[in-house]
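[step 3/7] fold_predict: job queued, chain A
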Amino acid sequence: MNADKRRFFGKLGLQQRVLPNYRAPFFDMLAQSCDGGMSLFAGLPRPTEEITSGKLQIANYVPAKNIHLFSGPLYFCYQRGLIDWLADWDPDALIVEANPRYLATPSAVKWMHAHGRKVIGWGLGAPKSAGLKVWRQFIHQFDALIAYSQRGADQYAALGFPHEKIFVAPNAVSPRPLFPLPSRSLKVDYPAILFVGRLQARKRVDFLLRACAELKQNIRLMIVGDGPERQNLESLAKQVYPSAEFIGAKHGAELKPYFTEADLFVLPGTGGLAVQEAMSYGLPVIVAKGDGTQDDLVHRSNGWQIPPDDYAALVGTMRLALSDVQRLRKMGEESYRIVLDEINLEKMVTVFVTALNSL
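[step 4/7] structure written:
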């Protein structure tokens, strides 16, 4: 183990299928912790994925040639140029996405092992719906694993991977807040509910509009974002909740006034990267259950997880949340504490460096 546990003293190679915009700050922060530097190998998404590619300021970026094969449950991806990148960068350690659908990964692991180097797999876990035999064989080629959540770590362990070689780095997209917890009044006559995200059908903003109407109380609903469903949602709002405010897309500092004015943050559908930012402004949250990354972030102490596509659960939970302002404020304080102390980019980088140094 290195004397300074906060740093990795070698050269790091990191493979990703794509480089999404929200992940770039993490990669740059991780690169700052690598004395030998870090190189990222990633390609472009399919046009239909609506993923905005990010830009790196510190880490070196080498573009991959992604060859996308089939779609849906049969999707596979082959990254051309992976071995050439490894030979050129010659990393001391490699982190790859732990996904058996990425066909070039086994050859990269073999190359690293042939050169006496270690490889860490980083992933969501091994879903039960997948072929467990395939997953078991796939993960056992790695020297260690990093899971996005405790649920993912438990899935890896259930397949026989050694517990001591599994690390949990809760999925973070925001750094520790550098500002104090916003002050909010305990007297609220007109509670404000906030949604931030891309306006897609799977986000179920239609549920949110109908739920606000069904609650039959004065609610300020702020919908921040843009996307293919915006026109349909605005038409629906005119019918069921005309006072809904469609703010449009906002980013960075532009979001501050909306987070500050809100009393409750709601993501009724799957996906959504704004939860942590909302929590950093001291907001309790309602989120739909997903891939397990919400489990470590949203507890009974700071919010509610509801089943996706369950309108009745959304209405009932919103009614419960808005029934006690004092409880809302205490839950918001806990949200702030979680992102300050437990789940943030700095903590995520620390886990990655710890895993690297364990090799």
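[step 5/7] annotate
Residues 68 and 238 are 41 Å apart (CA to CA).
The longest strand covers residues 12-18.
exit 0
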